[in-house]
Specification:
Layout: H1 4-11, E1 13-14, E2 19-22, E3 25-27, H2 36-43, E4 46-47, H3 50-60, H4 66-69, E5 73-77, H5 79-87, E6 93-98, H6 107-123, E7 127-131, H7 133-139, H8 144-159, E8 168-172, H9 173-176, H10 181-193, H11 196-203, H12 211-221, H13 230-233, E9 241-246, H14 250-262, E10 269-273, E11 277-278, E12 281-285, H15 301-311, H16 320-326, H17 334-342, H18 346-358, H19 363-386, H20 390-396
Parallel strand pairs: 6-7, 6-9, 7-8, 9-10
Antiparallel strand pairs: 1-2, 2-3, 4-5, 5-10, 11-12
Helix pairs in contact: 3-5, 7-8, 10-12, 12-14, 15-19, 17-19
Bound molecules: tryptophanyl-5'AMP.
Length: 413
């Protein structure tokens, strides 16, 4: 008998490549990781191409973020409509989220938040961040009190990314939904518009799953509609929403985009990222459930150094001689991949790629440079997080008006 996880894996398997991508499982049979071009075809999203990047630069008057330049954010759904809105001086808002299942967030979890912070700064728009403490109660062996506490703990890491308190609303499902009639009404409308057969097809739920799981996608869908936040949008129901996330979350928003026209609402737009790989290699994403696969935001400098040296999969030769002769393979080398996500210096990254490929730069040296980059990023994060008080968390999580102006960012390029 196949387990539920196996049934889901089969259902969401990329037939041609052996890749599995869904909100609960990401794996690939290739050392290079998921074949993202094939995934775009299978999911029916669009590739972020040079033309779109140029248009973003034209509309914002700023260079695009290095995660866009380097193809880390690689896929989208109707980003062009968001840019149309900006050009016409029309508003939009950002929506992203976190499932608080453990206290320690890992480096992969930072990716969408670092990028969302850049989007907020660049477009000067409001942002809502959903903490799905209800989801983690339904899926994990945790009580509602525990997941709610984790939501507040994780909010500290999110706030430490630098979001503007006047433009950002972070909410726990458990707390906010019971206090907002409009949010709950949208949830009900969505629940009524999607059948069990549809969620079974999208998420692979089975008859033995609890009914909480089956109706949960409506909860993750709801923040895509501005009417669910009357205190922020004054009851305006048609403000477009842009969702940055890794592509594992796309099934929720495929469902949301299917439902939107039935409810006469705007479909949310999306920007999808690739996965920050596990230390062992790109066949799987960094995951909090396997501590040796991950670098956590709570790791000490020594732990970071030891984990990279011990576990980071190397695309280099097995001996120094072999490496110098044959060169290294950046496409599978975890240290190089991590540099691609986190080093902001384009020319140094290009130099590393060239020298490593030729075998001039050794694995040990590349790892040493990466360790310094990560120790700096996590060290700075640690300091910023230590300054986030419970009062600040409460303020971010209080339903309130946000301060923002609906103005477009004028073209300078
Ligand atoms: P969660 O907590 O699993 O993940 C939070 C965010 O991090 C992204 N992510 C990654 N990105 C790059 N590399 C990785 N290895 C990696 N692992 C996780 C996820 O795609 C996500 O963007 N159900 C959601 C919470 C949620 C949400 C949302 C997420 C509610 N509403 C709207 C995005 C957008 C969850 O459990 O995320």
């Amino acid at each position: 008998m196949a387990t539920d996880a196996e049934k889901l894996a089969k259902l969401t398997m990329n037939e041609n490549s052996g890749d599995v991508v869904n909100p609960w499982n990401v794996s690939s049979s290739s050392q290079k990781g998921v074949d993202y071009d094939k995934l775009i075809n299978r999911f029916g999203s669009s590739k972020i191409d040079d033309a779109l990047l140029k248009r973003m630069e034209k509309v914002t008057g700023k260079p695009v973020h290095h995660m866009l330049r380097r193809g880390i954010f690689f896929s989208h759904r109707e980003m062009n409509l968001i840019l149309d809105a900006v050009e016409k001086d029309k508003p939009f808002y950002l929506y992203t989220g976190r499932g608080p299942s453990s206290e320690a967030m890992h480096l992969g979890h930072l990716i969408p938040f670092i990028f969302t912070k850049w989007l907020q700064d660049t477009f000067d728009v409001p942002l809502v961040i959903q903490m799905t403490d209800d989801e983690k109660f339904l899926w994990k062996d945790l009580t509602l009190e525990e997941t709610n506490k984790l939501a507040h703990e994780n909010a500290k890491d999110i706030i430490a990314c630098g979001f503007d308190i006047e433009k950002t609303f972070i909410f726990s499902d458990i707390e906010y939904i019971s206090s907002c009639r409009e949010f709950y009404q949208y949830m009900c409308e969505i629940q009524k518009s999607v059948t069990f057969n549809q969620v079974k097809g999208i998420f692979g739920f089975t008859e033995s799953d609890c009914i909480g799981k089956i109706s949960f996608p409506a909860i993750q869908a709801t923040p895509s509609f501005s009417g669910a936040f009357p205190q922020i949008f004054n009851g305006q129901k048609d403000i477009p929403c842009l969702i940055p996330c890794a592509i594992d979350q796309d099934p929720y928003f495929r469902m949301t985009r299917d439902v939107a026209p039935k409810l006469k609402l705007e479909k949310p737009a999306l920007l999808h990222s690739t996965f920050f790989p596990a230390l062992q290699g790109a066949q799987s994403k960094m995951s909090a459930s396997d501590p040796n696969s991950s670098i956590f935001l709570t790791d000490t400098d020594k732990q970071i150094k030891d984990k990279i040296n011990k576990y980071a999969y190397s695309g280099g030769g097995s001996t120094v001689e072999e490496h110098k002769k044959k060169g290294g393979d950046c496409a599978v080398d975890v240290a190089f991949q991590y540099m691609k996500f986190f080093s902001e210096d384009d020319s140094r990254l290009q130099q590393i790629e060239e020298e490593y490929t030729k075998g001039e730069l050794l694995t040990g040296h590349l790892k040493k440079e990466l360790i310094e980059v990560l120790q700096k990023i996590i060290g700075e994060h640690r300091e910023k997080r230590a300054k986030v008080t419970d009062e600040m968390v409460n303020e971010f999580m209080k339903p309130r008006k946000l301060k923002y102006e609906y103005k477009s960012v004028k073209t300078k390029v």
